[in-house]
Amino acid sequence: MLHITRTTSENPDFIELVKHLDTELAVRDGEDHAFYSQFNKIDKIKFAVVAYEDGKPLGCGGFRSSARLGGDQANVCFPGEPREGPCH
Description:
By secondary structure, this protein is of the alpha+beta class. The chain has one domain. It has helices at residues 12-29, 33-37, and strands at 2-7, 47-53, 56-66, 71-77. It has a 4-stranded antiparallel β-sheet, with helices on one face. The longest helix is centred in the N-terminal third of the chain and has 18 residues, at 12-29. The chain starts with a strand and ends in an 11-residue tail after the last strand. 17% of the residues are buried.
């Protein structure tokens, strides 16, 4: 059964899912990863969610406001098993 929990970027499951995303992005970005990774910080995200399926963290999302990035930004990630596919 799918369950979604509202949380912050301090949630351990959120942090672990983002680590998986960072690993995937390092491969995708290749030589450009150092440049892109500066935009992928998760500190101080007040509005986040973690999706669980049968108690297992499945995916996450976050919403933050960033003047540096030109306004509000929402991200959703579904890394690895059980659903293979890209994070958006």
